[in-house]
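Z., the sequence and structure:
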Amino acid sequence: MSVLPDMRIWPSTDLATAMSAEGLRLMFPLAALHAAVWPFLWVVVWSFDLPFATTSLPGQWHAQEMLVGSFGGALLGFLTSALPEWTDTQRLSGRPLFLAAGLWGGARVLGLLAVENGWLFGLLFDQAWILFLLIYALNLSWIKKSTDLLGFILFLSAFAAAAALLRIAMAFEAYDLSESAIRILGLSLLGLLGLALARITVPVTNLILDPTEKTSPYRPHPGRVHLSAGLTMLVILAEATTLSDAVRGYLMLAAGAAFLDRVAEGFVGREGLSFELGGLWLSSALAGTGLLVCGLALIGLPLPWLGGLHLALMGGLGLGVLQVLSIAGLLHTGQPLRFVPTTRLSILLLVLSVLLRILPEFAPTLALPLGPHALASTLFSLSFLLWATAYIPLLWSPQTVNQERC
């Protein structure tokens, strides 16, 4: 990562311009900071309780703020930058991005303290930025007369519906309905992860294998590019139509196997073990393994459902988000695609936090320091905090505007 010796960060016109030059410059830091703050507060500071929560569903607030808050913020930044790049259209910048970020942030303020009386405002805020993103994707598809973004549109639609359902179910303390909404939210994000990896892995692998970009030595098998996303959509449909545990379990096994199949994309020699590429296929491995555990639990095997869910979402999705933040953060600021030690440490801490989080689920009698989840949440938060310290100076620097290598 290159050094910017005379860069300063303070409120100024240049700073505002740099922050809103494209979606990822604004939303990646905000999403990372949210991911750094929320789990630590939830587990360590508030001991799984929330300041203004009076219902018996504090765990649903946690799931909502991680999936719609942290990961949703990263999704907003990623798609508002990637969609115009993929469709060769003008990117969003300036006021529309600040407005979307403000809507996302308004819902996060309510979620931070679990202000239950403000659930309707939270619903409106979140739906506004999600529908903004959905309409944006639909508009680009219409302009280009293309179906290339159809997969993203379908998963965004499922994400929007599940986010609304979760808010309503939480307001009326409908536990089963809120749990179903959480599952659809997580699956929607996993489907989007599968679509994103299909588009990201090939150019990133070729850039690692040939930094001169004169050749394309890696080409994936075309028949399974979108297999993981397609099977994940089947799981969403099974969940939405309340099919039996067995049906959902077998579909989860298929989706998990498809994610594990993506691990083969890392078989490109020793470069596949680099942090830049290794994190991508490890994200698929964790997501796939988590789905397999969940699927096996649903068909009757004595495996921890919650452990599998955290392995897929906290592990596969969390690592995938961190990888996208790290790779895009470099390429969109004109830096070489080589992670600095701080980024590598953040990746290691995230993987370690996932292992510590699921360990009590698979070994309930094992006693961990500081309790079952405090260490895991602290390391998870620290991983995103380290990312923020490394990338905010780059993303918010006026010197890196229009320097992307994508």
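DSSP finds 13 helices and no strands in the chain. The radius of gyration is 20 Å.

Let me know what you think.
H.
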